[in-house]
Amino acid sequence: MRWKLLFVFYLKQLGKSKLYVGASVLFFVLLLVRFILFFSDDMNSNMEYSGDLPSEVFMLVQIISIFYMVFFYLLYSKELLYGVSSWFADGYRILLEKMSALFAVHTLCQGFMTVMAYGVFSLVYVFIGIEPSDLYLSLLRFLAVYMFGPLVFTVLYGVIIALLFETKKISFFVMLFVWILTGPMMTELFIDVSQTVHARDWASLLFIGKHAIQHAYDSYLGFEVDRGGEWKLATWFLVLIGLALLSSIRWTQTRKERHTVLKALLVFPFLIVLTAYSSLQTNTKTFTRADQTTEINEYRQMSQSTKADLRYGIQSYDISLHGSRAVARVALSHLETTKPTFQLYHLYPIQSIQADHQPVKFTRSGDLVTVFLPKPVSTLTFSYEIVDTAFIPYTNGRIVLLADKAWYPKKRASHMYRLYEYSVAGTRAWRDEFTDQFFPPEKHVFTLSVDGDVLFCNLPKRGAVYRGKAQAVTLIKGQGHQLVYQGYEITYPADWPNMAERAPTVIHQLEKTFHQVQQAASTVVSSLPKFIVFSSWGLSSFMANDHLVYNTNFFSIDTYHLERDYYENMLRLSVPPKGSMIMYNEWILLATRWLMQTNGLPVIDWSSKSELFESQPRSVQKQIESIYDDFQPLGIDQKRQFLRTWYETMDDTWTWDRVLQVMQEVKVVGGHD
């Protein structure tokens, strides 16, 4: 009965407080302002990152949490100052009832605020055209972890500070310190520290917020919410409750009460360790900076001059994916070695490799796996585990296994990921790529058995399995939508708005650009693939015979805001490298400018400003600049003829003098075919 009266009392106190109500209203006022600023920017029209809109809550939670903390401190410290609890024989029990009632009231209010915020975000999503899906449910989970949880904890911060310092002036400095260190924006305020913390480091438990607060949503994987984040909230809750009980010991009136509290506190360390360990074990690497940095550094340290024995042929694959367990049976068409080498992602633990059902030995060097066979065999079976990594995140049962990744054993002589080092103004720089951006022409028969709902697979579904011939296989299990337009099957993320209305523009733009690229050079595929997968961020881009994966990098796919990047991306996806890296890069940049001019884009920079250009000696830079100077005044057809002749005849022996010679030849003949 008394607890209920206290609950009603504190509910009235919160409702009458201008500070508490004002902070709550301020949250939604600031959220409305952020929406107005976002949608008033023309560049944000149809931008493909609606899923990142909820990242606004990190800044808003950081702002209003200080007001809540001050309110609860003032409210509770004044009650302690008057010492009303000491008037009663069960005064310590009253103290605990006040704490729990105040916590319950604040939790109720924040639950109501979270539901209101969810309603606001949902209405915005419906208004801009986000289709119904479980994205809306995961949005609620996101707000519960990163808005509801941190704001609920503010009552515990205020109460603990009141118990420790009562009405002393130092309390306000302590609150400021706690506000900074426990805020969801801590990873941005101390970015140099957060960039070194991995998802499963114990130090990650210090961050309630994300490691990169601007990025809240990954294409097909959803919002950054998993059991790890929820276990982390449980850990924080137990720590704060334990601190509150520990701080309240001085207010106990009997030895029995003191012993009871101390006995209860003995349980907390075990519960805290249990929840913290569970958080680390279930935490994801998807959105963590340090995990990706570590993975890239691992590839930098791998030797690029690897030994591989590829004297074998692959006839077919039979791949089974059930949960995180993968079994890939590789049928060989011929085998001329007893030490065949395969490419398989080095972070996938291999349990065993069998040759004709008999276990065999193997070694790993980066992504290359060498199998030691006692005799020639016809089949090899790889049993391994799909784990969550920075390059191929696997979270909440969702995963994107792209064809350019070594998620199944491939006949390759290099690592899955390659980095090139060069120098710009005396500073080391890196250029990276996945080695399977352009696939070998041969096809294999694939049979893929997978549990759960599959959003996309480039193999046709035949009964309960996916089966067909392909250069490589892409499999997506995650949030997203599909539509069919003029024979194209388009897969796109769940946070993309009005895609059905924009599909005609998108397909026309892709077809037109691809046709224009074919006028400048021979492409790896003869026509635009009928299966197209779009993403906003995180996925690599490539083009195979049967499907295209295109990453917009947050730009709108149906407008020409992309300008140079759009045409450059299409060139790099469809025209394989030739000659030296710098020469191929400059060919791409010149071809990009030709495409921009062909499509009437007014602003074109007729100079090279790429990092590869900057890394060249001054004598080479002058030669490249002269090519740009001669290229600009040429007619459209002359530019096309120059680009086509340059690319078709270019090889590793070419120098810039040879390119200048082609330029002179084109200028002499007038650029006619």
Annotate the secondary structure layout.
Layout (H helix, E strand, L loop, with lengths): L1 H15 L1 H22 L16 H27 L8 H38 L6 H31 L4 H13 L3 H4 L1 H4 L22 E2 L3 E2 L3 H22 L6 H28 L6 H13 L10 E11 L2 E11 L5 E3 L6 E6 L2 E2 L1 E5 L2 E5 L6 E7 L8 E2 L2 E4 L15 E8 L2 E8 L9 E7 L5 E2 L3 E2 L2 E6 L4 E3 L3 E5 L2 E5 L6 H22 L10 E5 L6 E2 L3 E5 L12 H11 L6 H18 L12 H4 L3 H14 L4 H14 L6 H14 L4
Helix pairs in contact: 1-4, 2-3, 3-5, 3-6, 4-5, 5-6, 5-9, 9-10, 12-13, 13-14, 14-17, 16-18, 17-18
Q: Treating each run of at least 4 consecutive H or I residues as one helix, how many helices? A: 18
Average of pLDDT: 90
Note the overall shape. Answer: globular
Strand content of the residues, in percent?
A: 15-25%
Q: What is the spatial order of strands in the main beta sheet?
A: 7-6-10-4-3-15-18-17
Helix content percent band: 40-55%
Strand runs, count: 24
Low-confidence stretches: none
Q: How would you classify the helix and strand content by structural class?
A: alpha+beta
Largest sheet: 8 strands, mixed
Distance between the termini: 94 Å
- Backbone CA Rg: 30 Å
Transmembrane segments: 20-37, 57-76, 101-128, 140-165, 172-191, 233-249, 261-280
Keywords: Membrane, Transmembrane, Transmembrane helix
Protein name: ABC transporter permease
Organism: Geobacillus jurassicus
